[in-house]
Write a structure and sequence with these properties.
Elements: E1 2-8, E2 10-13, E3 18-26, E4 33-39, E5 46-52, E6 57-59, E7 67-72, E8 77-82, E9 91-97, E10 100-101, E11 105-110
Parallel strand pairs: 2-11
Antiparallel strand pairs: 1-3, 3-8, 4-5, 4-9, 5-6, 7-8, 9-10, 9-11
């Protein structure tokens, strides 16, 4: 079982930046891939980015070139660096690994 605790998020103006963190604990060795999802009001949860245990990354088209997913194996922490934010990025962001989910972090981008 994996437990995930998120931090970061907040309110930022368009064009600004934020960083989310996701600290994992539990059976870390079982994790093959970690993901960031987001869910905007009235919309379905969507995959934003993923990173494998080997460091391979993938991004949704809408965030490519603006967001960067990374992880620190020493601290079992995954990050999502979000640059050039726009109001369309406003959502609750969740990290995921195996069957575990973070508690969610609100990101609000004002125009």
């Amino acid at each position: 079982q994996v437990q995930l605790v998120e931090s970061g998020g907040g309110l930022v103006q368009a064009g600004g930046l934020l960083r989310l963190s996701c600290a994992a604990s539990g059976i870390i060795s079982s994790i093959i891939v970690m993901r960031w999802y987001r869910q905007a009001p009235g919309k379905q949860r969507e995959l934003v980015a993923s990173i494998t245990s080997g460091g391979s990354t993938n991004y949704a088209d809408c965030v490519k070139g603006r967001f960067t997913i990374s992880k620190d194996n020493a601290t079992n922490t995954m990050y999502l660096q979000m640059n050039t934010l726009n109001p369309g990025d406003t959502a609750v962001y969740y990290c995921n690994a195996l069957a575990g989910w973070g508690q969610g972090a609100q990101v609000t981008v004002s125009s």
